[in-house]
Specification:
There is one protein chain. The chain is mainly α. It is about 60% helix and about 5% strand. The chain has a two-stranded antiparallel ribbon. The longest helix is centred in the middle third of the chain and has 37 residues. The chain is globular and about 60 Å long.
Length: about 325
């Protein structure tokens, strides 16, 4: 479906690990200036869109999650597709539109048997929008229709870039991969024998994966800075001292900020449950808990992060917990 074969899905994890864990990490020093520029521009985009500047008011209401999403997605685009495409007019809105609609579509299709997915999509798209009797239906599944169109718009941006990169590789076999420091280049490197469509789809998948958890973490981090103002001064001082930071030092210059973010993630994990797995055969845990075949199990994030055996005073926010040995 959508140009991907079963083989592509099976190798999606290994491809992502190669691109993100190997190529991206090794290229962080070269991305220093790009990330710095992208971060400054993304913050402007994220907050100016919400019209924060108001000369007639001391305070301005902001939809923080919306701003955080725009900030992270725009910055991620610098890494995923390169600065040229990331800053192209309309690309941010298109990638944001597709990611949001894909999330809703996924939730809706979870209630539909997988073998019916193609038929359901075709059926929904065939219903006239002018039919008033289907108004309630469109309120429920309109996101699916919108997702199909957003996907096509997204591909119009991505496909020409992927085709150009593959053409460059064919015409210049000795071309160094470092000519482009972005995920499209590394996906082309890893999947050079695959079609442009498949490579574009993998790029879209990485875009989708980078859209949700990071903005939530930023949102909760800012909330905690407001809730616990005593942390502002030490964090500000640490940031000033680390003004000439380098991307290859793994955040060693800012241990206080690193700890504050980790504590935020511990207290607000983003979801109560995660890492869901279907049980393929009857299984019994060491404590005697029996899970019959066909059931699902998941990790209880919230409970694990507030377990007294793992953390001292687990229900209390301690921003610098992870810079102390007794945290």
């Amino acid at each position: 479906m959508d140009g991907l074969t079963e083989h592509d899905y099976e190798n999606a994890s290994s491809n992502s690990q190669y691109v993100l864990k190997r190529r991206l990490r090794s290229n962080l020093p070269q991305l220093h200036e790009t990330l710095k520029e992208g971060a400054e521009e993304s913050i402007k985009i994220g907050f100016e869109t919400e019209s924060m500047v108001d000369a007639d008011a001391d305070w301005k209401e902001v939809h923080l999650y919306s701003s955080a999403t725009r900030i992270f997605l725009n910055l991620n685009n610098y890494i995923l597709v390169g600065k040229d495409l990331a800053t192209q007019h309309g690309y941010l809105e298109t990638s944001l539109e597709w990611s949001e609609d894909a999330t809703m579509t996924e939730e809706i299709l979870q209630f539909t048997p997988s073998f019916l997915h193609p038929s359901v999509l075709l059926f929904i798209e065939s219903i006239p929008r002018s039919n008033k009797l289907t108004f309630a239906l469109f309120r429920l599944v309109g996101k699916i229709i919108h997702w199909r169109h957003a996907k096509d718009k997204f591909m119009k941006y991505l496909l020409p870039v992927v085709e150009q990169r593959l053409q460059e590789r064919r015409e210049h076999p000795d071309l160094k991969d470092e000519e482009h420091h972005d995920c499209i280049a590394w996906i082309c490197e890893k999947m050079k024998d695959r079609s442009p469509l498949v490579i574009a789809r993998h790029t879209m998948a990485l875009t989708f994966a980078a859209t949700h958890q990071p903005p939530m973490l930023l949102m909760f981090t800012l909330y905690n800075l407001c809730k616990y103002p005593e942390y502002l001064e030490p964090l500000r001082q640490e940031a000033l001292e680390a003004a000439n930071w380098r991307t290859d030092n793994q955040n060693l210059e800012m241990p206080l900020l690193d700890s504050f973010i980790k504590e935020t993630a511990r207290m607000e994990p983003g979801s109560l449950m995660g890492v869901g797995r279907r049980v393929n055969s009857d299984f019994t845990f060491k404590d005697g808990t029996h899970v019959p075949k066909g059931n699902w199990v998941a990790v209880h994030h919230y409970g694990m992060q507030r377990h007294a055996e793992s953390y001292n005073d687990p229900d209390t926010f301690d921003g610098f917990r992870f810079v102390r040995e007794d945290g």
